[in-house]
Amino acid sequence: MVHHTLSLLIKTVVSGSLFLLTVPAIATPIGNEQYVFDRAPRIVRLTSNFHQTNQSGDTYQLVISIPENAGAPLQAIRITQPDDQEAIVFQSDETRIFADNSATEIAQVSIGGTENANDLLIVLHHPVQPGQTVTFYLKPERNPSQAGVHLLGITAYPNGKNSPGLFLGYSRLTFHAPNGR
Description:
Blueprint: H1 2-22, E1 28-31, E2 34-36, E3 42-48, E4 60-65, E5 74-80, E6 96-99, E7 108-112, E8 120-128, E9 133-138, E10 148-158, E11 166-175
Antiparallel strand pairs: 1-2, 3-4, 4-9, 5-8, 5-10, 6-9, 7-8, 10-11
């Protein structure tokens, strides 16, 4: 009897654990259909294929990790640029997004500018769940003409209706003039 009860308990726990792995994250509500992250997503890296100024055909790779205990899935990101640097113009229709190194692309609901022409807002059709990593492939029209460090501010938005964003910080890209300076 004890063995049967213990066996049943183990099956229930294992079944429940598998069920929890497949259920979307339950976001932390703050009211009015808004949610917040319990733990901040993290910028893993921002890289470019080419580091030369004025280079066309480049692709920037932005990788964001959503921790297991984030408390909410990632619904959108906003990329901002400081006003005192040359703006990078993105080809929003060329943006591609993949979760967990998957070959399956994540569709966007919308992508494009905002009230600030130097911003790029990417809203995902399906939120990226906690415990996953998401990679954004961003295509600039061309790299900046000025050599040096260029900053991109990254804000993450949890799912929900007008949920407040969480500023993750600045990530940098460095560009060099063709002569190496």
